[in-house]
Amino acid sequence: xxxxxxxxxxDALARHGSVSGAAxxxxxxxxxxxxxxxxxxxxxxxxxxAKHGRSVRLTDAGRLLAEHAARILxxxxxxxxxxxxxxxxxxxxxxxxxxxxxxxxxxxxALAALRxxxxxxxxxxxxxxxxxxVAQVVRGDLDLAVVxxxxxxxxxxxxxxVKAPVLDDPxxxxxxxxxxxxxxDEVDLGEFAEDEWITWGEGxxxxxxxxxxxxxxxxxxxxxxxxxxxHTQLGLVAAGLGxxxxxxxxxxxxxxxxxxxxxxxxxRRHVYVVWRADADRRPSIRAAVAALKEAARNLGDGAETGFxxxxxxRSGAADAVR
Length: 322
Hints:
Helix content: 25-40%
Structural class: alpha/beta
Number of strands: 11
């Protein structure tokens, strides 16, 4: 009989395309991946991997078995979800990711509440940018991902995923206290055409949103500095090195010497959670979504729970967990 864990290893190899990628996805060592594959080859009596330069590739037999493995593992996950739903208990393991400011602003409260209320639930969390979180949910490496898009630049959600809104997150412009606009009640993005911008890394979703938004206003942005973390950006603002757009989530504490001014045109990003439709009945999924929403409600300070979004993916099932 085929060993389920070895099939899981083969499936990870097929999805990630490398031994190191499979090891990272399964949270095991590369030697453990190699050992599992060697055992599986002996089990089936065929070569499943072939050396390809310094890497490996699946043989025809490996690809054939990997296709079966994906279907088998999907059925196992569905069976586990149905059993968990029948028991009605929040148990087992739940793997979550969130982009950095959501991990800072939502995870401490949400995960602590889950652990207190459901001691039989094992939680595993990590920080991932939205597109990587979505990809890992699709692959089955994660159960839930907290992701985002902006009011004028939605992020596509693949078919087969369910999503639920968590937070409507307002953003302001952060500027040095001595900036010429620091005393204003509100500002317009067009007033910063000559300022240096502090933004996210090249290719990151939020950076692409900022470039898109500024250019749509006829502004070719002057990018002076890049930093992935909100507090690093705010530190650069405090040093007088530029301005940045800062959402509410995860911004506190704001450093001394930084002033936040609202934008005249409301700028918000939508924060939501996604999971696979075939896991929709799992009580642990619903408990986690409820805990994330509760953590969002506890933020206050202008954040709004719930919003209207037309990005891809199913939404009907999500209504049940609001």
